[in-house]
Amino acid sequence: MKHSGKGQENKSFYVVKEGDTLRSIAKKFSLTISEIKASNQLSQADRIHPTDRLKLRVGEIKSLAFN
Fold this sequence. Notes:
Helix content is 21%, strand content 18%. The protein is α+β, with helices and mostly antiparallel strands.
């Protein structure tokens, strides 16, 4: 079993689905909206749309989170 080191993060992509918001995605992955925006160079005015791919930096990815 592989263990993550302290401060190590996994980089993953999430495909936005109909009805997703930055808030709902942040909550699902235990991130902040600011963290998602920073990882994806999004400004205050940027909006997400279904099929957009967001780069997420998460400590431990839960396999169910992508289902």
